[in-house]
Fold:
Amino acid sequence: MSLHKKASKKSESFFKSVEKSFDKAAKFLDINQGILDAIKSCNSVYRLRFPVKFGKEVKVIEAYRVQHSHHKFPCKGGIRYSTAVNQDEVMALAALMTYKCAIVNVPFGGAKGGVKIDPQTLSAEELEKITRRYTSELLKKNFIGPGMDVPAPDYGTGEREMSWIVDTYTSLRSGGEVDAMACVTGKPVSQGGVRGRTEATGLGVFYGVRELCQSSEEMKKVGFSTGLKGKRIVIQGLGNVGYHAAKFFYEAGAKLIALAEREGGIYNELGLNPDEVKKHIKKNKSILNFPGAKDIPDSSKALELECDILIPAALEGVIHKKNAECIKAKIVGEAANGPITADADETLNKKGIIIIPDIYLNAGGVTVSYFEWLKNLSHVRYGRLEKRFSENVNTEILQALEHLIGKNISEEERKNILRGPDEIDLVRSGLEDTMISAFHEIREIQKEKQICDMRTAAFVLAIKKIADSYERLGIFP
Ligand code: NAD
Structure:
């Protein structure tokens, strides 16, 4: 049975699960109940049904766009293509976006889109038709636009879909809207995207886990030494987020002992190279039978392996009431949105497992989307104005130093010191700084209020910031 079916069969509502975490956190704050209710509720839910013609056949497509919060504009959130899409799921994901943006200081309200289709069974032409029609439907109701609501990629979508969206939006907007490019993020660089967006969520996951592993206080709790080197990691889902996270963990010297995809997983105690595994999947259309690794026929069993760090990076609800007791990892990093249900969360906390919550850990995507949006509004590539200036200043400093010490440095060192920043350098350092600062903001609140788990502390931080925004804005009469 696919994860989609398993996830949709779960009785627990995903949105209720998010609300439970919210309520748990709200108890640590002295905030007016009316304001709390305003933060928690979904402001606008747009449920669409539109026909698309494939040859002679007409199919009705079910889709959604939810704007969870309007305390800041535009709203921001990815678009998901999956057969498991439903209103409850899109509402929950939109709510998570609101809290996520607050945690990483991205000035957006939360939103999410979902189209109930299986992209794997549709041709590129069919997907293009659906994407363009969905975009025009959103535009009709003002649910897309640079200052209104800005989608991005999510499960089942990527750069290609974002390109179709920007093209549809710009061609439907007559009058040459100057900021039209900013109507969607996650675009290819040639279409107004920013360097570093593709890998941003996975890289953010890496920075977040690395930060936790650098804390001797946290590592003591789980009996580990500090650092990522040699830590045994299991990753579920080798898509955009999972693959890039895997790549950065591998490069940092961690050991990827198991990787799982829909059809099953593979295990090698000595470690797996994610690029080799990706090549193998491309060639064989399956992760199974990877040379030197043992097959795990049931993908969900990979979650229960003995390991140090578990990274669920596929879909929500994969760690639930029934398998929570079987989780053996000491740290779970939620790369996917909502991979742990509220019941399972309690069980894992009781077991002393450290959970790095989704509303913080996978915020790298929206952070770099924010950089892309800013780039589109300013109409200039990051680094274009300052690169040469920095290089000239560095040259002067270096020449003065060489003169002072009476010695010239090597050509290699010279190249590294003189180099001015490119777009990718600025984006990555902005992302790294955001993930590190947010981690410490959460930890400070956790200590100050003596909160046991990081999820509750992250929610407390988000609610505090949004409530402050509401209180300062006042409520529109
Ligand atoms: P994706 O479509 O690129 O990849 C998902 C991967 O999961 C695919 O390779 C798919 O085959 C695999 N998968 C599906 N069912 C599985 C199963 N049963 N076991 C193992 N693997 C399975 O999607 P993505 O963009 O990487 O998103 C993954 C998660 O991360 C989602 O929860 C999404 O909401 C979240 N997320 C994504 C972004 C982003 O920037 N793309 C940002 C924040 C959060």
